[in-house]
Amino acid sequence: MSSIKIECVVTEKYKIGESPVWEDKEGVLVYVDITGQKVCRWNPNTKVIQTVNLKEPVGSVALRKSGGYVIATGTTFAALNWEDQSVTTLARVDEDKPNNRFNDGKVDPEGRFFAGTMSQEIRPAVVERNQGSLFTLYPDHSVVKHFDMVDISNGIDWSLDHKTLYYIDSLSFAVDALDYDVKTGKTSNRRHVYKLQQDEGIPDGMCIDSEGKLWVACYNGGRVIRVDPEAGKVIQTVKLPVDKTTSCCFGGKDYSEMYVTSACEGMDEELAARQPQSGAIYKITGLGVKGIPPTEFAG
Ligand SMILES: O=C(O)[C@H](O)[C@@H](O)[C@H](O)[C@H](O)CO
Ligand SMILES: [Zn+2]
Q: Which PANTHER family does the UniProt entry name for this protein (predicted)?
């Protein structure tokens, strides 16, 4: 544990850096700047950042088997063609809620894209409550709503046996589990598995490691925590130099490195002066645990 190293690798100041995903084929980290309305790719070898600017906020990005990416932007599930930067709508949600937008998302083990919505933030972590829902985009581009009454739909991942979906609604300050039927993509039996302590901040993005433990980025907590979902306990805390840590994923060689995104939107001047690297992306090495490769959207 003493060999943990934290480096600021992308020094850009994203408004809300989020949804990091490692694309092994290209050797790049793909991520979004939600309110900056961008999808970006960073190559750790060349240090080059490529950016596609969008017309609406973009909550999440995921890999797509047929090439390019699938994104959750505004209230639209869309395909992003990286070569010509074109965006093609696949499906729409929350059409009765003009103030909503998509937030975090991830592809399930069978290639379905899950993403949730929220009401646009009045300021960080302040929203009209209960406006969000969790949705799935199936490979045939049909959409299913799992549940509503969500405040800020956030981190998602699946247990290694694919029988459990882990889910975060940030303002519940908890990590939830749901029974998952990987054959149909249906969820049931939602319950809390971990309730955050006050100093841990607000649970945001999340990923699972190859030992079945959850890594949760804590917004306003300046840390990632490793949660044992069976024991309902935090088993490791890694603090970062910025408070507004938003999400995390494993990547790099054999998925042995962790990437952590952060935000700078809505910071007061005092915090902005004290943590000028807010909005940057960090790399953590020496954790002694690996991640698992992300699944590609099958549609
Ligand atoms: O990135 C997200 O998930 C939200 O869009 C952000 O605005 C913050 O992270 C959130 O307020 C903290 O829960
Ligand atoms: Zn988030």
A: REGUCALCIN
Query: For the chain, what is the domain count?
Result: 1
pTM beyond 0.90: the answer is yes
Q: Which atom of ligand 1 is nearest to the CA of 263?
A: 9
* CATH number of the domain encompassing residue 103: 2.120.10.30
Complex-level ipTM: 0.92
Ligand approaching nearest to the C-alpha of 219:
1
| One-letter amino acid of 238 | V
Query: 67 C-alpha vs ligand 1 centroid, how far in Å?
Result: 28
Task: Compute the CA torsion angle 204, 209, 213, 215 (nearest 10 deg).
Answer: -20
Tell me the pLDDT tens digit for each residue of 168-206.
999 999 999 999 999 999 999 999 999 999 999 999 999
Q: Is residue 208 part of a domain?
A: yes
Testing ligand 1's pocket by substitution, the residue of 14, 16, 106, 150 carrying the most ligand atoms inside 8 A of its CB is 16
Distance between terminal CA atoms of the chain? 41
- Domain with 10, as residue range(s), is 5-285
Q: Is residue 220 part of a domain?
A: yes
